[in-house]
Specification:
It is a single chain. With 315 residues, the chain is of the alpha/beta class. It has one domain: Rossmann fold (3-Layer(aba) Sandwich). Helices cover 40% and strands 16% of the residues. The protein has 11 helices and 13 strands.
Amino acid sequence: MSNKVALICGIRGQDGSYLAEFLLNKGYEVWGTSRDIGSGNFNNLSFLGIQGKVHLISMNTTDFISVFRVINEISPDEVYNLSGQSSVGLSFDQPKETIESIVLGMLNILEAVRESKKIVRIYHAGSSECFGNTKNKPANENTPFDPLSPYAIAKTTASMLVKNYRSAYGMHVSNGILFNHESVLRPERFVTQKILHTAKKIYEGSSEKLSLGRIDIARDWGWAPEYVEAMWIMLQQDKSDDYVIATGVTTTLEDFVSQVFGFYNLDWKDHVSHSKALVRPLDIRNSYADPSKAEKLLGWSASVKMPDLIGKLIQ
């Protein structure tokens, strides 16, 4: 059992909640931040049965004084930065908030740790969105970034900050370049959850239609509880680095929809409509991943892949 202290910035989200559960099982003292713990929604922690087992503290990652105060007060061994606006689609409507929450948030954490007296290991939640279209070639840690959204631009900038602080100051800070990963904790604004919820309602008798934008896009979808383990493994390494975390299996959204409706013995073509309003100004067509470095150096590989992932989500 560990006696380490972990600080999770963004504990209310899918990854933060699963990571908190994982670290508690490892014996960590877990702290989680939210901009306002008095009015925040901690349903994910409650769902996992761990809300009373973690310490919650207010912190605004875009405010350096707030970040510095919390890090010095808690004195963590590990900091996991999972905070920031996390919706690609919403980033087109809220570019300023997205960029500030991700870039300034990461910069403040790096600076606060650099100025603290304790050696702290940091994890940064990067994103496959940074690669843009991988052009049918699996992206690895050496693939150039080509961001196509304000969200991806923010994540790319934050990842560059991580590399800079690692090289300039010798800090132990790793980039987890995570491809899409899902669970029952995803909010319904994510397209996978929208598909799952609507298909279930139609099966139960609803006459509604599932409205989608482009369905020819392709993504590598994984199981979120496995991905948080990879975050932890990165910080246990002697040397920090960047790692692509993915299943290595890419599926089109059309196939995803077909498999979900097929589970209920429904023909998706009878229940899906196209909406131009849901088409983003720019979108990644195909996203392919090469997670071989993580398997080789971290000993991590995804065990839940498509179509088993859909079965787990539905069940």
